[in-house]
Amino acid sequence: MSPVDTDRFQSLLQEERARLVKELEFLREENPGSVEEETGEETHFDQHPADAATATHDREVDYTIEESAEDALRRIDAALARLDAGTYGVCRVCGRGIGEERLEARPWTDLCIEHARTFGP
Ligand SMILES: [Zn+2]
């Protein structure tokens, strides 16, 4: 038997997943095309260095958000796969139960609180 109420965490993960998918769609609509495609095509940036700096800054911020949303999505997919496999809610380092309180805050985690300090969020 699984150490946690997997149905509940499955719906938590699916809700969070749906939210992230929407967020990523929105970000991609806002930023069609890649950074590489846009560099070198515009000459007006040379005439307005301040605008160019602002545009570059915005772009970097957006891509950071997009990357972290994609990262979160990968974590959620991995967590859903663990739910299917019956290994959800177990620390991947020490194999102990992660604890429902922590899973409620971070339903995608595969680290107990102790190992999250060592191996990241
Ligand atoms: Zn652990």
Outline the structure in words.
The longest helix has 37 residues, at 49-85. It is elongated, with a radius of gyration of 20 Å. The chain has 6 helices and no strands. The model has no long low-confidence stretch (mean pLDDT 82). It has helices at 6-30, 35-38, 44-47, 49-85, 100-105, 113-119. It is mainly alpha-helical and 121 residues long. The relative contact order is 0.16. It has a domain at 6-88.
Keywords:
6 helices, binds zinc ion, 121 residues, mainly alpha
Counting H and I runs of at least 4 residues, what is the number of helices? 6
Give the biggest beta sheet: none
Intertermini distance: 26 Å
Instruction: Label the overall shape.
Output: elongated
Ligands present? zinc ion
Q: Layout of helices and strands, plus pairs?
A:
Blueprint: H1 6-30, H2 35-38, H3 44-47, H4 49-85, H5 100-105, H6 113-119
Helix pairs in contact: 1-4
The chain binds zinc ion.
Short description:
This protein has 121 residues and is mainly alpha-helical.
